[in-house]
Predict the 3D structure of the following.
Amino acid sequence: MSFNIREVVMDLERHASDQGWDQPVRVYALVPTSDLLEREPALAGMLGVSAPVDPSALTPIEQEPLPEELPLEQALGRMAWPDAVAGCALVMERLVVKGSDETLAPPKDGDTGPWAQSQEGAEEIRMVAGVLRDGGRHSALRMRSHDSEDQVLNGEDLVPALTSALALTLEEDGDG
């Protein structure tokens, strides 16, 4: 079965856009919609889904917030997914320095807007990355300075470090 990772990533990007900027990191389990409805038929009405369901469709299920005290890499390193999860996705905002591969972590307290504006060559971006157990991956990137639906970049290898980190959360732990 081949799932439509691009579609779910773009849906999550639109959802994040509707919520506005300065949002926390969000993590989603990606579950085959048909499996979810089979196990939880009451969800069909809540999700507005009716049969027949596209077999390639995935439903993102938001997870508990990541611990704020842990760096993202450590939080991802502690993640594991049950077999029913076909993939996972992450939505996060970062500052990047134009013309560099450097990213800046904003201060944890208060409004980051003024701080971001003061950074030389910095650009606020929202990244949405999704990966599947079968190796499929897709990402979307929106710059705050170009905040419109037709300016969203997307592709398989847009944020390879992030998709690779997410893919590791789906690997079986050999000593568990």
Observations:
- Residues 5-19 form the longest helix (15 residues).
- The longest strand covers residues 87-97.
